[in-house]
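Flagellar hook-associated protein 3 FlgL (Rhodovulum imhoffii), 335 aa
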Amino acid sequence: MTIRNMGDMAQSFQLRRSSADLRSRLTDLAKEMISTRKSDIGREISGQFEPLADVERGLGLMSSYSTSLASAATLLEAQQAGLSSIRSEIDAIGDSLINARTLDISSLRRIGEEATHRFSGVVSTLNTRIAGQSVFAGRATASPALAPAAEILSAIRDEIAAETTAAGAITRIEAWFNTPGGAFETMALKGSAQPAGPLRLTDTETLTLETTAADPALRDSLRLLATAAILSDPAALGGDTAAQKELAFLMGQSAQGSEERLVGLSAQVGWQEERVETLRTQTGARRTALEITRNVITSADPFETATALKEAEARLDAIFTVTARLSRLSLTEYL
């Protein structure tokens, strides 16, 4: 029978190699304990990366969709807040206008000044920008929705300069705002009448931001306030106070209709908000499911990792013990 002995050099090399392997294993296990993720995914899944790749791709899409949905929700929230603000402006001026026939001249002027201020506020609201995007400018997201309020009011005053009756002024202002291709669209509207979008929300859903400053309900609100703002000028309608009071009264009557149209527009935006929120919930659920799947594939079991760590430590201790004994071995003890 032949006995094969290992030389001292080979034996030393083998112990050092085993020690290095165990040290590396201990480092990997320690990382797994801290990160709770497997240190060598490829070994754990036997090189079958396709399922994990599908999960990672799905998570990337969910992240992209979440960003789009958050952006859409922010824009819709800004539109809803803007519509609420405009509705408040119309409501506030309506009560003053409807009682204009009983007011004195100074009170009538104050109503005109109030309407001028509120018109400027509405224009500012419609020119709101969120994250560099104009909220009510439709497709022209880089442009303001409307020209400055002072420019619009100046153009309207020029339009009715020769009018001396309330009915005549109202007719001309309505035509100024509502004629297709007319003054409002060519001079006042700086954004686009075409809605923004479609925005990709999910793999099957898109969203079009349909509300723009060119919407009939918003045009009507602007028209009402711009008409009332004329009352701030004593020379309006040829300086005829009775005609000015009649103008204010007629605008007060139309205020309720303007509010109702704004409520309908708010409801439309609200429906879009609800739709986006539903998709956000669904996308969040899909993302959570994918994260759970990824964790199943990549997460390290704490109990198994702790057990393997103790086993590796014991084996390393054994190697150290053997190495120490061999280093003390003499020829006498060997014989």
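The two ends are 20 Å apart (CA to CA). The first strand starts at residue 129 and ends at 130. ok done for today
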